[in-house]
Amino acid sequence: MPNVTHSPKLLLETLRGKKSDRTPVWLMRQAGRYLPEYRELRASKGGFLELCYDAEAAAEVTLQPIKRFAFDGAILFSDILIVPHAMGQNLWFEAGEGPRLAPKITEVALASLERAPEHFEAIYKTVRRVASQIDDKTTFMGFAGSPWTIATYMVQGQGSKDQAVTRRYAYKDEVAFGELIDAIIENTVEYLLGQVDAGVEAIQLFDSWAGTLSPAQFEKWVIAPNAEIISRLKAVHPDLPIIGFPKGAGAKLLAYANETGASAIGLDETVDPLWAHENLPAGLPLQGNLDPLALIAGGEALEKSARHILQIFEDRPHIFNLGHGILPDTPIEHVEQLLHIVRQ
Fold first, then answer.
1. For residues 335 and 344, what is the distance between their CA atoms, to the nearest angstrom?
2. 241: helix, strand or coil
3. Which end of the chain is less congested by CB atoms within 10 angstroms, N or C?
4. Over 70: is that where the pLDDT of 2 sits?
């Protein structure tokens, strides 16, 4: 059995491999559109990017779900595309269509992009503000997108269903794509070290599009870059907990867990929790992995799904979370139901 802790920073201690008599819980995208207080603030501030760069407002959004639900973790309100914005691409959000980046990285020389580090500094202001306001029981988490996922946006200029344009580019010009990945690694390490210096206590690396790669490409463009980032962060902050979340990785999670050095592994909703518990390294903290649609369904479906996950991971350090982000049409009362189940 893992060591048992009653530390007030329950989530932080769980990420460090300690088992408690209570399971910590937070939800990806917990600061967002399902909350009426978020919608009200967003309407008063205009666009999404403007909200991200407004330190006072972004700090308030970060803390809104903590004030309402007392989650064990607060995750910085921001966006993964802050990194390419700071690298010199223009970033904007099209209403109803999502983010856009220009120029596409296939249309210009990477070296021609003019860095804009002030975008990082805007986020650090939010971090410092949250760190000064957060209570002593809530773990404050920062984050960044992992290099493969960031590269897919930088190459195509927007999101896509299968990342085919970026996958073709990676095969066609491996040297140029490798240079892009290296540049993203450099900027991501700088960005995350800045977040830690400003006050975050743990980090999550989001590789949202990791599931579209073959095993060899996964090794090259997911495992190796994340391992490099984690190694460089740990060289400066050896005790920094880092959650790796390669969505869609499936059985490749085993290699990811063994080779990246991540402190904990996030599981998406397609991963069988029993498989994860039996195959991933013993004692490694796992996070997840309720289907966001089960949360929307509520009632018996939610209770059955949540209790199954809790039962599987009862003898392992475990952070309860969704398998991906909370959806905008999630009823508040279903979140309350979930918290009641997890905290019983």
1. 14
2. coil
3. N
4. no
Task: Flag whether pLDDT at 161 surpasses 90.
Answer: no
pLDDT digits over 320-333, tens only?
999 999 999 999 99
- Residue 36's CB is within 10 A of a number of other CB atoms, namely 11
Instruction: Write down the pLDDT at residue 7.
Output: 54
CA atoms within 13 A on the CB side of 110: 14
Catalytic residue check, 33: yes
Which position among 54, 72, 79, 268 bears the catalytic label?
79
Whether the predicted pLDDT of 70 surpasses 80: yes
The catalytic position among 153, 169, 191, 256 is 153
153 is catalytic: yes
Contact 20, 314 (CB under 8 A): no
Domain span holding position 321: 4-343
Average confidence score pLDDT of the chain: 95
Task: Supply the CATH number for residue 218's domain.
Answer: 3.20.20.210
CA distances in angstroms from 299 to 26, 240, 337, listed in the order given? 20, 37, 8
Number of structural domains (the chain) is 1
DSSP per-residue letters across 144-196: EE-HHHHHHHHHHSS--SS-HHHHHHHHH-HHHHHHHHHHHHHHHHHHHHHHH
For residue 95, pLDDT over 90 is answered with no
Q: Determine which one of 16, 34, 38, 42 is catalytic.
A: 42
Asked if 315 is an active-site residue, the reply is: no
Tell me the C-alpha distance between 337 and 325, whole Å: 17
